[in-house]
Known about the structure:
By secondary structure, the chain is an alpha+beta fold. Helices cover about 25% and strands about 20% of the residues.
Amino acid sequence: xKVTVDAQRCQGHARCALIAPDVFDIDxxxxxxxxxxxxxxxxxxxxxxxxxxxxxxxxxxx
Length: 62
Ligand code: F3S
């Protein structure tokens, strides 16, 4: 499972980093970055919750 953040959509709500702090971080400008190119199996549920909780729909899963 891979996650990506669309920088054009991200508005810095930071829910992703709160829900899945081992998968997402917030950069110095307040926008999301992805910490792991491939999400470990044990973090997939949290990563999916982050996807559904992003109000901008900025995170996609492959
Ligand atoms: Fe950005 Fe959505 Fe996270 S707006 S900071 S990807 S919750």
